[in-house]
Design goal:
Helices cover 35% and strands 23% of the residues. Residues 1-15 have low confidence and may be disordered. It has a domain at 1-87 and 205-275: P-loop containing nucleotide triphosphate hydrolases (Rossmann fold), CATH 3.40.50. Helix 3 (124-137) runs antiparallel to helix 4. The protein is α/β, with parallel strands linked by helices and 275 residues long. The strands form two sheets. Strands 6-7-8-3-9-10 form a six-stranded mixed β-sheet, with helices on both faces. The chain has a four-stranded antiparallel β-sheet with strand order 2-1-4-5, covered by helices on one side. A hairpin with a 2-residue loop joins strand 4 (74-79) and strand 5 (82-83). The chain binds adenosine-5'-triphosphate (ATP) and magnesium ion. Magnesium ion (MG) binds at residues 59-60, 96, 175. Magnesium ion binds at residues 59-60, 96, 175.
Length: 275
Amino acid sequence: MNGESAVRMQNETGTDHEVKVRFQNVSKHYGDVEVVHDVSFDIREGDFVSLVGPSGCGKTTMMNMLAGFVKPNSGEVLLEGKPVEGPGPDRGVMFQEYGVFPWLTVEKNIRFGLDLAIKRHIPKAERRQITEKYMSLMRLSDFRHAWPKNLSGGMRQRLALARAYAANPHFLLMDEPFGALDAQTRSDMHELLHQILQAERKTALLITHSVDEAIYLSSRVIVISARPSRIVESIDIPFGFPRDKSLLDSREFIDLRIHLREQVMKQYAEQQALR
Ligand SMILES: Nc1ncnc2c1ncn2[C@@H]1O[C@H](COP(=O)(O)OP(=O)(O)OP(=O)(O)O)[C@@H](O)[C@H]1O
Ligand SMILES: [Mg+2]
């Protein structure tokens, strides 16, 4: 397959009943600065959608609108057909700045979401077991009583991931969750995320600056323009799941990478010109 045929444009939002999230003509400005301009796209049940685009273009703002922390100035963000009114336990958010609670130890951070009233139906022993599982998967067991301020950046990021996964939200919203990790850990985290998504049908939105990461993890990659955010291209990734690392060396993967990098670099150059 060549680069062209690997790329399928999606120009229209879908109408099927599996639509989980719909950005409908969403615009957002802060004062005079327009950050998001008339963005429309859908996320269907089970989709893994990545947003790639230059720094400062408005990606976090878009995620915050879906998470319920920010409201659009016009248009709507619909979750299962209803406008997002605020945050909810159905959406597990992993913030760009780690999102761990500095006043809780590693273990208590991971348990946090599990101990909320909404999860109290899970027996205590099972909540403990889930906490142990993610603490161990993230190689944090030896640091269970440590405070976040005493962890490295990569450890804090792993803690934030453990916390988000342990709460088992249906919808994972992740803002550059792997940015502070070394290459090997990052690659381990990709495999772990694949496993979690295989085991439990989840829907995910990921923001990343890594084109490889976006392709490897996603069912769809959306390229965002320089500010204000618009959709430059939305590409269905033509690889099924499960995936393994050998995919990274395949001709189709390399073609997609070349195509996407080109698109993204153009937007980076435009964003640079804005400064
Ligand atoms: N609360 C706010 N008040 C004012 N301006 C804001 C606010 N939040 C974001 N902005 C501005 O909106 C623009 C987009 O910010 P946003 O954080 O969404 O970018 P981003 O694409 O996530 O960038 P990065 O890749 O660096 O994380 C920036 O110019 C930023 O300064
Ligand atoms: Mg951001």
